Amino acid sequence: MFTGIVEELGEVTAVEALGAGGGARLRMHGPAVTADAAHGDSVAVNGVCLTVTGLADAEFTADVIAETLDRSSLGALAVGSRVNLERPMRLGGRLDGHLVQGHVDGTGTLVRRTPDGTVGVALPAHLSRYVVEKGSIAVDGISLTVVEAGAEHFTVSLIPTTLERTTLGVKEPGDLVNLEVDVLAKYVERLLGDPAAASRLGQAGAAQ
């Protein structure tokens, strides 16, 4: 589990194809996230939870299956690409952003940005119902508050620190971004779609 508070802006140093399966092995430079990392640990890379498969000289490697490459923007990474990096949150630590699983729901497209830090993102129709004004969304692994929520887009406002320390400071209109909607919204939808489950939930609440 992550919080969407990016710890470090890393860099891809190598991309290697993995056999006929269509996967890839990424090597990334990230001194902060590798400082206490071990083989098998998790690291969020542009919001995608990946497993550390190797460590050396402030760099780590992670294998990415074809499904992940297809459903996220990681398939577009190349040597020199900047990436948002975050280690999992520690139990008992502060939850400064929101609960982020690192399970990307899909990709959006940055459609506009303004000098005041406003960024507009187009998103797939099947995800728009989970995005609400003042709600939370993870964009490239960054926990952000939705300013405007439309049927096919949403906007967020970025402070200078976010622009300086994350990929959203360098992305331009037309670039893909990974999106993870608030998991609580998906659970609520599932419960409301199951009358029996919703009834049980209501009875439990009334009994408290």
Descriptors for this entry?
Elongation Factor Tu (Ef-tu), domain 3, 21% helix, 6-stranded antiparallel barrel, alpha+beta, 208 residues, 6 helices
Molecular structure report:
With 208 residues, the chain is an alpha+beta fold. It has 2 domains: 79 residues, Elongation Factor Tu (Ef-tu), domain 3, CATH 2.40.30.20; 80 residues, Elongation Factor Tu (Ef-tu), domain 3 (Beta Barrel), CATH 2.40.30.20. The chain has 6 helices and 12 strands. The strands form 2 sheets. Strands 1-2-5-4-3-6 form a 6-stranded antiparallel barrel. Strand 10 and strand 11 form a beta hairpin. The longest helix has 13 residues. The radius of gyration is 18 Å and the shape is globular. It starts with 7 loop residues before the first strand and ends with a helix.
